[in-house]
């Protein structure tokens, strides 16, 4: 203990018990293995990029990175039809509801009818018996016809007959029309029903959106505004 005390008393303040000395061989670097063998000459001769290519984790990635530029993947062009294109471009027209039935003005002989019902769903032209009697002297006679009519409620009625080649005037045109005559209640709202045979004879073109009816005769045509039938 006395020797330790003497050494401490002889030390210069601010210094360690033993000063460090500069290593004369500071450039020498030695690696010791666990076996105790010292490796003095350690040199990695392989370039870093060569070492990386040997690693499986990087091999696939490096193949996708060429020295120049990475090629862009080719895109496939899918051609859409007109229907799909209209949907994507929002060109589909706005849908409409049922516009209902329509009527047109016409005249038979000396009688004018403001609301003759045009029905593209009817396969016949229909005239009530009371209208025929009103114009009996101008329309000729009723001919019998072996036809029965089935109504919407599945009931069946027998018509009075048929009158043929009745001249119907619509605007400036006159068309020959055959009517089946039926005994029915008086309905001033629907005095006549003109079905597909009439519309075909008139070469009619219906524009339900604009609510217009085009009738044609030869090279002439007339466009009239249809009247909505109030039910």
TrEMBL record:
<feature type="region of interest" description="Disordered">
    <location>
        <begin position="1"/>
        <end position="22"/>
    </location>
</feature>
<protein>
    <recommendedName>
        <fullName>Aspartic peptidase DDI1-type domain-containing protein</fullName>
    </recommendedName>
</protein>
<dbReference type="InterPro" id="IPR021109">
    <property type="entry name" value="Peptidase_aspartic_dom_sf"/>
</dbReference>
